[in-house]
Amino acid sequence: MNKSDYISSRGNRKVWISFILAILMLSGAEAALQFRAYMKGGDEASVETIDDGSIYYFNEDYQLKLIQPNIDVDEGHRVVRSNSLGLRSPEIQTKKQDNEIRIAMLGASSVMGMINPVNEDTIPYRLQADLQAQFPDKKINVINGGIAGYYFADQQQLFEKVLKPLDLDLVIFYSGFNNVSLYCEDGGVAPENHGLLNLTLPKWVLSIELLVKNTAILRELRPEVEQSTDPKSLNEKPFRDSFESVLKSIQNANVPLLVVRNPRAYSRDMSEEEQYELSAFSRSKDGCFSIEGLHDVYDRHNNIMEEISRGYGIPVLKLDQLVPGGHQYYGDSIHFNAEGSEFVANLMLEELNRDHLLSDGGVK
Amino acid sequence: MIFQSFQFLSFFLVVLFGARIVLGKFPELRKLFLLVASYFFYMCWDWRFGGLILAITFINYYIGPKIQNADDDSVKKRWLALSLIISMAILAYFKYANFFIDSMNDLLTMLGFSVNIPLLNVLLPIGISFYTFQSISYTLDIYKGRTEAVESFSDFALFVAFFPQLVAGPIVRASHFLPQLKNDHKEEPDSMETGVALMIRGFIKKIAFADVLAVHFVDPAFANPELYSPLFLLVAIYAYSYQVYMDFSGYTDIARGVARTLGYELQINFNRPYQAVSVSNFWQRWHISMSSFFRDYLFFGIGGSRYGNVYFNLMVTFIAIGIWHGAGWNFVLYGTLHGTFVGLERWRRNKRAAEGISEPEYQGIRLAAQWFWIFNVVAFSRLLFRGGSLDSAIHYAKAMTHFEVTSLPVNMVGVVIFVLALILHYTPLHWTYGWKSFYCRIPVVIQSGLIVGILYFLVAISTKEAPFIYFQF
Known about the structure:
- By secondary structure, chain A is of the alpha/beta class.
- Chain A has helices spanning 10-41, 109-112, 123-134, 152-163, 178-181, 206-214, 216-219, 237-252, 272-278, 280-285, 291-311, 319-322, 338-354; strands spanning 56-59, 64-67, 72-74, 79-81, 100-107, 139-146, 170-174, 257-260, 316-317.
- Chain A is globular.
- Chain B has 2 domains: 27-186, no CATH class; 192-277 and 362-472, no CATH class.
């Protein structure tokens, strides 16, 4: 066959048709997923899909990922209702009422209630209910200031832009450990690139993300073969600096603060198998650490947070030592189920009372 | 731009569309388009190396006709020597300069001199060993009268830079590829279909086999050998042999598949290497384009079995093969080890011939035992290859004697893939041909579904976007 005749070859024509059909199939699957996301999340779904669903959007003014305002979305595993600020909280008035106590719980997925099926199962909601029972004459508002995936920098930005103007009486800072994940991202330093072009799949493509998320078991390693980073070799300064920066930001606003040590569902006294199972989420997130490395790195960073907080005279709630591990309170490695939220809310209430952070029904 | 990336798939579709549909009836423009695409492909790694490949291309293009047109053999030799010296000097500078400096420093220190020659700050251009050898095969083939000097610079430039095989082979001979660039060259019917089938097989080999074996066995074992039991380390050595085979032959399949979809044929590079019954037989089955290059141009060039000492010639050839893979004493030792085995086999064969004893014929259990023995020779010699240095190889070997360590972290996915790799390697060869003809026979909708299904499967099982092992050479 001469080169100029190849188009007429039956086999070659078949290849073109198969390519076109394959592209159509891939596009069809993607379009179906985008449509599903649109139905769940509204207009913004296809614009910015981040994390575990499509309920988020990027607020250009605040330079922050937030939940789409005023949505009531059933994602199958959870229903998310948001207020006009883009938080998983009831609507809140800009001006505080005279008899109102406003508390913001600042954090990430644990505060947001990533695995809680309804808003009422989140820690802020449970704490609000507990406080309301303790102070029936007051109007209690515990604002859920948690967004999944937030780093310290995002939390500081959220506080500055969204929460601070709300005239808060107290901030409970339950940060989560998203900043620890940064250690696993090539040390955060990309090699110098002299390539002409680097084309990657657009971030809004859902098919790949969905596929990868649902086939984790195929890529899961036994704990012994994980490529582990030695926690002692980490440069902790950026973590310290950014954490301290959040504290300073809140202190400068003259808002009392309670810092929470980040808990986890697995502990060293459990069997290896149990730790392995319970640490699945942590391992998928902080994959450069072995299980022992995770224990070490989480403890070290909790200690850093506590040390810095104590230095500023800020009380610290040691949730990591107060909440029993296992399945009773946790839905995965770090996120609480409804029972866990209730348990944690009670512990927070006890701490607030112990430290007289809310003495006499008002703020100290 | 590695093959298993979104960028390459997009690039490939654009190039295929441009070369097949838009410029299909304009062969000269089509070749120019492929040349530009090939340079673009290479410069996506590092635009600065575009000049290097252009320089090597220009030098050998210029020298080719000089060799052909020289009347005197000594003049031909001088031009050939110039081509070899310049090409090898460029390769040596980028690939071996720091090795020589480092070795020189060690030697001077050993002799009591306190001299420290500073290392050069040079980057190793990806695929330099492949395209340098390809370029010099052109001048060598002209000198030997196997091919004629090409008139068109763009044809020659395309031969050197043709993107499917540019960074990891197969090393294409001028006498094989240049005739395909002639406009009256006949293309195999249904070459696109069989090309796509080859590409699919290559992607499966790389992502579903090589990368999975790396993640579950090889990488952890070689990163911290002291943590694992001797049994796990042994399995990891075997797994590495299959990883490197699946990785490299996967690359070759993709390269051949892409080339075929564009209408060009590249030579096969592997032929069931672990079914070899001797180390020499292994080298006839492994990286065939490279081993045959060294056989034809170096071994025969220095006398082969006709002139000089054949064992010396063999050793020189295998040490050169070792050094081709990388700059380090581990690679020198790797070549020496294989040269020794091949030399011994040659000596035994000669001895048998002198005594009138015929060569043994392996069948049944004896054949399986011979396969296993040769596989072990190859697999263990690759400790030198994978370890990265002599010290690492020794460290790994020592860890294999720590019988008190019992950690054997077995992962089901890893085990299944490993067993499957073994089974596939020993299945009859005609089944492989069956797969290609099966793919070509099925209806087009099922072909598309297969492409989508395999794509999703590979995304699901893909542990990382790992580069091909042979890119470093």
